[in-house]
Amino acid sequence: MERSRLLSLAHLWAAFLCFLPATGLGLWQLLMRSPLPVPVDDPNAYYASLTAHGSIMAYVFPTLFIMGFGYAIAVSALGRPLRGENWAWAGFVLCVVGSLMALAPIAGGRSSILYTFYPPMVGNVWYYLGVAVVIIGSYFWVALMLINFAAWKRENPGKPVPLAMFAITTCALLWGWTALGATSEVVFQILPVSLGWRHTIDAGLARTLFSMTLHAIVYFWLIPAYVAFYTLMPQAAGGRLYSDTMGRIAFVLFLVFSIPVGMHHLFMDPEHGSGFKFVHSLLTFIVALPTLLTVFTITATLEIAGRARGGKGLLGWIRALPWNEPMVLSVALALLLLAPGGFGGLINMSYAMNAMIHNTSWVTAHFHLIFGGVVVIMYMAIGYELWPRLTGRPLITKRAACVQLWLWFWGMLIMTVPWHIAGLMGQPRRYAIFDYTDPGVAKMAWLDILSVVGGVILVCSAALFFYVLARSSLASAAESISPIRYALAVNPPARVHPLLNGFMFWNVLLLALVLITYGYPVGQFFFLHNQDAPEHSLTREMKR
Amino acid sequence: MAELLNNEGASGLIPEETVERTERRWLFAMATVLGLMLAVVVFTGVTQMMNPLSDVETINPATLHLQGEFVESNLGTAVETDGSITLRFLAEQYTFVPQCAVVPAGTLIRFRLTSPDVTHGFFVGTTNTNAMVVPGYVTNVMARFEHPGTYTMPCDEFCGFGHHAMAASVVVVPKEQFTKLRPEERITTCGAQ
Amino acid sequence: MSAGNGSGRSWGFFAVAMLTGVVALSFGFGFVLLPKYQGTQGPYSAKDSLYHALGLHTHGKELGSVQPPLKVPTYIVWTDATIRQAMGGDAKRGEFIALNCNACHVEQAKSTEPWIPILAGLDRLVTYKQLDDFRSGTRLSGPMSAIAQSLTPQDYADVAAYYASQPGMPENTGERMPHSHRTYRNPDPLQRLIFAGDPKRGIAACASCHGPGGYLIGAPALTNQNAAYLGQQLQAFAQGTRANDMNMPMRTIARLLTPEEMKSLASAYAKGLAELQ
Amino acid sequence: MEEEHHYSSASEPERVSPSISRSAALEALKNGPRGALVIAATAVGLLLVGWLLFYFVVFLTRGAVG
Hints:
The structure holds four protein chains of four kinds. Chain A has helices spanning 5-32, 43-78, 85-107, 125-155, 163-194, 203-214, 216-237, 244-257, 274-308, 316-320, 326-348, 354-357, 361-391, 398-424, 439-442, 445-474, 504-527; strands at residues 121-122, 200-201, 533-534, 536-537. By secondary structure, chain A is mostly helical. Chain A has a single domain, classed as Up-down Bundle (Cytochrome C Oxidase, Chain A). Chain C is an all-alpha fold. Chain C folds into three domains: 2-53; 80-164, Cytochrome c-like domain (Cytochrome Bc1 Complex, Chain D, domain 2), CATH 1.10.760.10; 189-276, Cytochrome Bc1 Complex, Chain D, domain 2, CATH 1.10.760. Helices cover 53% and strands 0% of the residues of chain C. Chain C has helices at 5-36, 46-54, 80-87, 91-105, 107-110, 124-136, 142-150, 153-165, 189-196, 207-210, 227-239, 249-254, 259-270. In chain C, helix 1 packs across helix 2. The radius of gyration of chain C is 29 Å and the shape is elongated. The model of chain C is unreliable at 1-6 (pLDDT under 50). Chain D is mainly alpha-helical. Chain D folds into two domains: 1-30, no CATH class; 32-66. Chain D has helices at 22-28, 34-59. The radius of gyration of chain D is 22 Å and the shape is elongated. The model of chain D has no long low-confidence stretch (mean pLDDT 90). Chains A and B meet through helix 2, helix 6, helix 8, helix 9 and helix 12 of A and helix 1, helix 2, strand 1, strand 8 and strand 9 of B.
């Protein structure tokens, strides 16, 4: 049985327990934005629900999942007990407590400021304290990943670190660096205002600090999905990983290039010149490379498995793959979703082209497709993979798991494709309700209704996912559960280049890059002698 | 890149190099594809002056109504002394001021917006005129509308409980129908209201 | 793997070289090539390109456009000092001052006198601002201007504190329980206007600033206010005879309302939105 | 099965999943990952063409930027 499996299980249970209701909120919001009737049709409730849906899906659910998955990897890939397991539990408790602290004011309608912090709009102080506590909890995980990584390397000098551990440590390091942006915004700018110590806030600096986290957090979510691509799928498909080295290069590229690209979220902002906007746009092109590398490496891995199972001809290997294996099916569906998702990303990042779709529904559809689609479908597959090993009980059905993954795939496409089109037609972002008597808006009615259909499929899929995991947890225990095991590469390297086995060098490069690309954009606010904006709270939090 | 990739591993079999060479060739191909797209961005950026907004201009959001460029009497469409057209809006909680603006078709229009309270955003119809409006900063965006008509200009950034009803309209009239304004005159309504 | 230190350093050197190349390229395009051709009058010089790319050029600002005669809506600025003073009133002292206010504002309020609002329960910041506007003349009213000029800002705060403590209009905290029929699905056009607004005409929802379920600094709660007064003030905003709304939100919106809508909105809010489903 | 280096997969050999032999994998790769190259190349080709189409047909026709 896995060591410290209860720790990982607690994280995964907490993650999926808040994921399910958040999908329900998502469906209610889709109904609200559509012409269809909906219960409790109140715009204020929509903005509160959107804050909850966003906060759970962006902060609570992925962070808890990744921490749980990280601990499971550390224990199994390094083959030794987790150093500092009680610290890990402390981090977990902080994350859960922080989430509840953040969700309480949202439920009370006292912090409907959405999840991307819009200073000078300020919500209830407990929301920000909650988010800060979740981030602090996640730093426990970052520290433990680095400690276990370093301890293993000391005990195995010169040996290549297992790819899964190398990747999840890159993910931890990336999160450690990037969370500093949003955390400093919350701690130095927003909390002093919401605690009543200050009454004005520099919105430009706040948006710039948040942009340091805003894109790298996407790769913090994506890397665990790629860990499953590289180290869990090959053996499920019955093949071997095409190239271990290229996997390490991809993860290193993510680490170095994820943060200095953040200003592609600020292309249309008035507080920055076009110079650094272009620099960040060009670096975003570079950060598209590791994904393009991964697409090829993983397709090649699938081909090896398919041919090893007797697939003939140029594409004959596709049919030969074991499509009843959830891990294999999910990787294929993730790659299929990655195409349109990546396409949307290519358009969003292309400097001036961002003006076409900035803050329209195109952007919302993009991140639902690429995070809600590619990443979450892999989280589900990882859930299916880990569950038997963490609960000691076999998965009750692989067929239902595959049906669930197909539902998630189709639901995500049906929801997001019309949404992209509505964005192109000029549907503004974050509207609670649309006035369909306006002819310009009525044109999009059928698109919003199609998105609702997609949403219904997604909620059914999420419910089925939850059912499969819950039922499997209640099944009778079985001894024959194999432990978590990792794929072999075609040419498993005996030694790996020191630069692909450690992070010191990349940390230096990363910091240099962030200083070069964010130095002036952040520094300018300190000599711009601009007036800060007075704070505005939607629900009169500022009792003086 | 060579030493890194061809770590010959145990038996130095030929496939060792072929795997790495294929990956390297793929990496190079992907770099060229991205380079091509970047070249298109830079080329059109230069030839067609395609650039996101680039003027960092600060202003005190709390005293917009007392003095300065965004006092209420100076909002709306203005014809500057050099003949260029400026369209000034205030984006505030839950309405643009003016709520409707008239501009001539086919002429370069300078949009200038700021906000007295929270962050807003706007785009005009389905054109590329699209920018954020951040309190404490002035958004300065150039636009040109070829086709006359009424364009909806919604607020596209969450600004509070009234965000979903915040929308102005920009009425583009043919150039000859645009009334000649003296520099101190402003158009703040659309007439045919 | 040839782990000799030669290759260790050379691959690291290669990575740094690639990175510097990429960064140099991005700065070259971003700060030299692209901004050079952004000027409408031909390419900029290298220095101008750099200034433009850093955002230090403010093209629109130098226009020095001729401005129409300045008209200031209110001299109130919601700085922290103003808010602190307005909120810092002493209700007891205010009650003493309010003795002569009640001459008009208590008895008359019960009747339908259109020019006398109910003050009981009014938000402190609102009372403070209106008194200051009467003093500075940005809001015109014969009796009120004289009274306001005879009082000091501390008096304004005290009176505001007193009336805020009186039961009457509910304090607008911006919260409300979720309630259905608050969207465009509601068949009643009046409720649509109050809770959802009318983006077709660019009219914001009344409740998003005046409540219930929306708070904006300086915007009074309207429920249980004197109906005739509300209708008359909406009329005044529409015609511009009342123009002390900071940055013109009320004049912009009131101008878009039809007289019938003004009347029904006023009576709905006066009845405390009670009968609205 | 030839002696395999397991460290790049997992620290202990029993944590390395049983998989096809290296020679079987090399056999599958004898004429290179042609299928993968074809699929990945068409996908990236479609992305590039789609991007160019969007850039010139949808984006540039919507007027000047900034």
